[in-house]
Amino acid sequence: MLRLQLPRLPPNMWTLCVQAALIATLVKSSVSLTDNLVGRLQTSYNPSKLSESKFLEYSNLSNKLHLREAISHILIPRVVGSGNHSLVRQYIVQSLKDLDWHVELDSFHDTAPIMGQLHFHNIIATLNPDAERYLVLACHYDSKYMPKAEFLGATDSAVPCAMLLNLAQVLQEQLKPFKKSKLSLMLLFFDGEEAFEEWGPKDSIYGARHLAKRWQHEGKLDSIDMLVLLDLLGAPDPAFYSFFANTESWYMRLQSVETRLAQIELLERYASSGVSQRDPTRYFQSQAMRSSFIEDDHIPFLKRNVPVLHLIPVPFPTVWHTPDDNESVIDYATTDNLALIIRLFALEYLLGGDQAK
Ligand SMILES: *[C@@H]1O[C@H](CO)[C@@H](O)[C@H](O)[C@H]1NC(C)=O
Ligand SMILES: *[C@@H]1O[C@H](CO)[C@@H](O)[C@H](O)[C@H]1NC(C)=O
Ligand SMILES: *[C@@H]1O[C@H](CO)[C@@H](O)[C@H](O)[C@H]1NC(C)=O
User: Coiled coil located at which positions (predicted)?
Assistant: First the structure.
């Protein structure tokens, strides 16, 4: 995935960069939830928090075996245009169709260095294709082309994509009302996120660039309340930060879900962290990081004013863009914890506004 507009640095230098980039500590009272502007219609949306009993009920829902199965189906080399890439796409499409999601492909051709012309396919899955507004959860399903090595991309982004399929599986009952509601859920699996030769404006995020442009022409960007992009997840001890002011209150809801789960001891162990500059006992750090030096699939949407929550750890996992980004780096306790936090966040977003009724 992605490029950093910073030189490659050893992990300890990363810490310094993170420190330098921290410009604000989140203060709960400074962000009024009623100020949340979602959609370009500037509607304010302020769903209520899940009640104690609902929170407990939904926390109980999980299917860890399914999550592992989904990871193993996606965790094969899946460079755009390869047979394995088609297999992974078919697996994602079929899994969602089996759960009665509406699935369509956004297919297009583009030319890439080394490969020449390629056929790309973004996968767009919605519970209600006719909804007016969507919470969008996204990942990329292609893997990086490495001429001299086998690259599996466990964190990049087999685990994030498996988490989305697992969410659809685990919450199938709870999500049923959103097949007819005005506010609904969309899962987006971008194609062609990786560069083939060297990351640049024409060699990277092929799928996201295509889709953002297409939806702009079709006037569909306004229906996206928020794009939540998952990337580089699955390694132990991730630290997340709030990157964008206009989605900070949603970031704080993720933090709050994490805190509630920790309080009732429903998170599996937090692995001990070697990074002393941040709070090792939580994933969602209480700082904002405003220098937007991370390029990823959100950029074409961000440029078109779509609110973005970027769930990517800083620093990146140490295995990033190496053949070591394979099954052995996956920490399943962390993965299950994050999957649970994201499920509860999505349910709070969708159910808290009583949109289903
Ligand atoms: C959650 O699951 C546990 C164990 O299966 C059960 O004892 C408990 O009643 C459940 N709680 C809720 C709120 O469903
Ligand atoms: C396709 O995936 C299989 C695992 O299912 C793997 O053994 C094989 O090497 C992959 N093919 C390519 C061309 O990467
Ligand atoms: C995964 O990467 C680790 C670290 O490089 C390596 O030791 C291991 O053999 C790899 N495992 C697989 C299944 O490729």
Answer: none
